[in-house]
Design brief:
Chain A: This is ABC transporter ATP-binding protein. The complex is a heterotrimer. Chain A has seven helices and nine strands; from the N terminus they run βββαββαααβαβαββα. Chain A is α/β, with parallel strands linked by helices. Chain A has a domain at 67-178: 3-Layer(aba) Sandwich (Rossmann fold), CATH 3.40.50. A six-stranded mixed beta sheet of chain A has the order 5-6-7-3-8-9, sandwiched between helices. The N and C termini of chain A lie far apart (41 Å). The model of chain A has no long low-confidence stretch (mean pLDDT 93). Chain B has two domains: 2-11 and 34-113 and 224-333, D-Maltodextrin-Binding Protein, domain 2; 121-221, D-Maltodextrin-Binding Protein, domain 2 (3-Layer(aba) Sandwich), CATH 3.40.190.10. In chain B, 42% of the residues lie in helices and 19% in strands. Chain B is globular, with a radius of gyration of 20 Å. Chain C contains eleven helices and no strands. The mean pLDDT of chain C is 89. Chain C is mainly alpha-helical. Helices cover 74% and strands 0% of the residues of chain C. In chain C, α4 packs antiparallel against α9, α4 crosses α10 and α6 (134-141) crosses α7 (145-169). The chains are: A alpha/beta, B alpha/beta, C mainly alpha. The B-C interface holds B 3-4, 7-8, 10-11, 74, 77-78, 81-82, 93-96, 98-99, 102, 104, 146, 149-152, 175-178, 181-182, 184-186, 188-189, 191-192, 323-324 and C 49, 54-60, 134-136, 138-139, 142-144, 222-226, 231, 234-235, 237-241. The structure holds adenosine-5'-triphosphate and magnesium ion. The site of magnesium ion has 3 residues of chain A, from α1.
Chain lengths: 257, 340, 274
């Protein structure tokens, strides 16, 4: 599924957060969004997912949705957003219960989601009994249970430690290997963007404007190969260069305020 | 000893700081006088005490008496029992007799009486009940009557009425409302057929048209409303003090009787000697308008004699109601050696 | 490798000092028997003050007198009559106040108009002492059970409103957004997210309102009640029967204790996930 954003502006009262964003997310691509703190990345994602109403501009989707898709645009959250009073399987069940599914189909979706994320043995556990990484896996399994056409990920790994992050990146890689689900991936972490994204959008400091879109030529599954490192280092330098200036200015603004 | 003091404070603290010291005699003036205190309510029935204080009868007996004001009849005998005041003067309730049964208080002289011709408490019928035929006190049999509390003077008045007209309290439904405002609310709301109400309340209900006064307790069943009392310990250990106190009290009592309880040949109450002066004293002490005080001045027996038979009847009544220990000997609640 | 630490010790003249433990205190440990023991000691001291004549029975009846007053009530069956009457009033009044309070609290927690209207009203009415309203309640509801339910219900209503709407406020917003992003209908969000999310706060409110109901049953039974623990306590006070008074108070506090225990069990059951 494609996502087309046209001339998007957003204000919270007097605070202009996004200004004149034009962006198309292509079918099957993973688009990383980076930018300084507070530049409006989460707002952009919320608008794309239809849970924040933009001040002006249009958002549209086009293209096919997969079979059995219940919720074409689906979020994966930084804080996992699991219901603490529901077990792992019931957290998945939550997003299926309001759809007219047979009990068998619902069970099947829950089971396949949990098995794919290696959570089957923990299906009766409560979120508080799981580690951070496991909790985000529940979040991913929940997203998979609705067979999404597009994933919106808002810093999905930033609450996790480095090793867990690495493991979950592998999970994402195998996900995009198999499903090629379109995704918008907001992050602060250049390494995540370099490992996972096809293109990287750099936003300016607030009000967020589109600074640049950097394409990573190297195929996703070869980015750990020695031959890929030269190109990746070059992309990294460019991104860092862009971010650095913006981040410094944003920092100063915050200090002034 | 310290424990006893502590418990007193506990009990009194719980009663609230309701007791307010009233018009303590300036210290300089009190030189050489024996200090003592009495618990009273700010009602006309405490009139003789206010008169004795105001006209210096206590001082003539060598006493410096502090008046401590309480807000309910319950609190006064408790304060005497706890030793916070030496004397008390209020209406007689089942609670008083329970304290007497524990040896905490004893009556030494009379206070006011319900007496024919003196309108203190009225039987008031609601409009509906009156229309339905409740026109005289005897008709209260079988009716719903609001009272303040179980064991109150109103409760006894219902019992007395029954004794006179051949029914018992079982033949009426008494509804305890805790205080006069709630009693009035139940009455106005038509929740009961009648109340026995103090004169001011009764007259107001009648004036509003929400009720009809069908009789006066004084006319129907005269009885010993209240008494001057102290603790048996005071009688035993400070008898001269008690005698002096009663002496001053009786002087005032006689004056009160002469001024307020005089009747003409037709039996109507008329103003006696010193009426205006004494009325002003009582009005000042009770913080009421003289007209209001004048409307509810009770009868006192000039020599302070208790209606002994009625006191015995009261004790028996409470015992039959199960509210006072059956073992209490009715005669033991009074000490008749102070009033001759 | 061991010799790297050697120069350190050689350099400083003093011998190695053990590190002193300084992390003690300030932690709450369970002392199962302490409370019980404290009770036993308290009762023993109380009883002995009477036995040795330090305090008169009138001022502080000894536990034995209170116990025998209680036993007498249990024997003649009046205890059950009083308990039954009070429990019925507490039960009905509390349920009425709670249901109404939760409905209003929910409206205020969810609807901004309801909140704008409700907050000042609740602030204005909550602090009114219900006892002051008793004469009005008598006129409105009579002197039968309704006025007693109303007294308890009114007392329970306002704290329930406040507990409910602040509990709803404390439901994490991100969970609601998550549910919206998965397309859950409004009613489902209310039932599956808001209600369970607010439950801890609402249950904490129950603890308070249960105590309030218990306090108000005494006030409610000022209104022409023949039976009821509150009526019993009031009468005992009026009659200066201090042993019965304390026996009634003891029943009330035991009632409070059992209600508290029931609520604790309920919390443990319903809030296992915390
Ligand atoms: N609901 C809101 N009301 C008012 N201001 C908001 C709201 N949400 C966000 N903001 C402000 O809008 C700006 C952009 O917020 P947003 O969360 O989109 O930034 P972000 O790029 O995701 O930041 P971060 O990197 O910290 O996640 C911030 O300054 C934030 O304080
Ligand atoms: Mg963000």
């Amino acid at each position: 599924m494609r996502l087309i954003i046209k001339d998007l502006c957003h204000r919270y009262d007097d605070l202009v957060v996004l200004d004149g964003i034009d962006l198309t997310v292509q079918e099957g691509e993973v688009l990383a969004v980076i930018g300084p703190s507070g530049c409006g990345k989460s707002t952009l994602l919320g608008i794309a997912g239809g849970i924040v109403a933009p001040t002006s501009g249009t958002i549209a989707v086009a293209g096919e949705v997969p079979d059995g898709c219940l919720n074409p645009i689906t979020f994966i959250f930084q804080d996992f957003a699991l219901l603490p009073w529901r077990s792992v399987e019931d957290n998945l069940s939550l997003v299926l219960e309001h759809h007219p599914l047979s009990a068998a189909e619902r069970r099947e979706r829950i089971e396949s989601g949990l098995r794919r994320m290696g959570l089957w043995d923990f299906r009766k556990a409560l979120p508080k009994q799981l580690s951070g990484g496991m909790r985000q896996r529940v979040g991913i399994a929940r997203a998979l249970a609705v067979r999404p056409a597009m994933l919106l990920l808002d810093e999905p790994l930033s609450a996790l430690d480095a090793q867990t992050r690495e493991l979950l990146m592998e999970d994402f890689l195998s996900l995009w290997q198999r499903e090629r689900t379109t995704a918008v991936y907001v992050t602060h972490n250049l390494d995540e963007a370099l490992r996972l994204a096809d293109r990287v959008v750099v936003l300016s400091r607030r009000p967020g404007r589109l600074r640049e879109i950097v394409t990573i030529e190297e195929p996703r599954d070869q980015r750990l190969e020695p031959s890929a490192q030269a190109h990746l280092a070059e992309v990294r330098d460019r991104l860092w260069h862009l971010i650095r200036a913006e981040a410094q200015l944003a920092d100063r603004e915050i200090a002034d305020a | 000893m310290t424990v006893v003091r502590w418990s007193r404070r506990l009990v009194l603290g719980a009663m609230g700081a309701a007791a307010l010291a009233l018009a303590g005699t300036p210290a300089a003036e009190a030189q050489g006088l024996e200090k003592t205190s009495i618990g009273v309510l700010a009602l006309a029935s405490s009139g003789p005490i206010f008169i004795a204080k105001s006209k210096g009868y206590f001082e003539k007996e060598g006493l410096d008496v502090e008046l401590k004001m309480f807000t309910s009849a319950q609190q006064v005998p408790v304060a005497v029992a706890s030793g916070d005041v030496d004397f008390g003067v209020t209406g007689l309730t089942a609670g008083f007799y329970n304290l007497a049964a524990k040896g905490a208080v004893t009556m030494i002289a009379a206070q006011s009486r319900d007496e024919p011709g003196f309108q203190l408490s009225a039987y008031v019928a609601t409009k509906a009940a009156h229309d339905a035929g409740l026109t005289k006190p005897a008709d209260l049999k079988g009716k719903r009557i609001a009272i303040t509390t179980v064991g109150s003077t109103f409760h006894y008045m219902v019992g007395l009425l029954g004794q006179k007209h051949g029914f018992t309290v079982k033949d009426v439904t008494m509804v305890a409302m805790q205080d006069v405002p709630k009693m009035v609310a139940a009455f106005k709301g038509g929740q009961v057929d009648a109340v026995i109400a103090p004169v001011t309340v009764a007259r107001q209900l009648a004036a509003e048209g929400s009720g009809t006064i069908v009789g006066w307790v004084g006319d129907e069943t005269p009885w010993q409303l209240g008494a001057l009392f102290t603790s048996p310990k005071t009688v035993a250990q400070r008898r001269p003090l008690a005698e002096k106190f009663v002496g001053a009290y009786l002087t005032a009592l006689a004056e009160y009787h002469a001024a307020f309880n005089a009747k003409d040949a037709s039996g109507a109450v008329v103003k006696g000697p010193g009426y205006d002066e004494l009325l002003a004293i009582i009005a000042e002490a009770t913080k009421q308008k003289p007209e209001v005080v004048a409307a509810g001045l009770p009868y006192v027996e000039p020599k302070g004699k208790l209606l002994v038979d009625d006191i015995v009847n009261q004790v028996k009544f409470w015992q039959s109601e199960g509210q006072v220990d059956k073992a209490l000997d009715a005669k033991s609640v009074m000490d008749l050696t102070f009033v001759k | 490798m061991p010799d790297t630490s050697l120069p350190m010790t050689e350099r400083s003249a003093a011998p190695p000092q053990p590190v002193r433990f300084r992390g003690g205190g300030f932690t709450v440990k369970g002392h199962r028997w302490a409370a019980l023991l404290a009770f036993v000691v308290l009762i023993a001291v109380w009883e002995s003050t009477n036995r040795f004549g330090l305090v008169s029975e009138l001022f502080l009846p000894p536990p034995s007198a209170v116990a025998s007053a209680l036993a007498a009530m249990a024997q003649d069956g009046s205890l059950w009559q009083h308990l039954k009457a009070s429990l019925m009033r507490i039960g009905v009044g509390w349920v009425m106040g709670t249901v109404a309070g939760m409905a209003v609290g929910f409206a205020m927690g969810i609807g901004s108009v309801a909140r704008a209207v409700g907050v000042p009203l609740v602030s204005a009415f909550f602090p009114i002492p219900k006892i002051a309203l008793l004469p009005l309640f008598i006129l409105w509801f009579g002197i039968g059970e309704p006025s007693k339910f109303a007294t308890i219900g009114f007392g329970v209503f306002f704290p329930t409103v406040i507990a409910t709407y602040s509990a709803i406020d404390s439901v994490p917003r991100n969970l609601i957004r998550m549910a919206q992003s998965f397309g859950l209908p409004w009613a489902s969000i209310l039932r599956k997210i808001v209600l369970p999310g607010a439950l801890p706060g609402i249950l904490a409110g129950f603890r308070i309102t249960a105590s309030i109901a218990l306090i108000l049953v005494v006030a409610a039974e000022m209104i022409g009640a023949e039976y009821g623990i509150g009526a019993f306590v009031l009468t005992a006070g009026n009659l200066m029967l201090t042993d019965q008074l304390l026996a009634g108070v003891l029943v009330l506090s035991l009632l409070g204790l059992s209600i508290g225990t029931v609520l604790s069990i309920l919390e443990r059951r319903l809030l296992k996930w915390r």
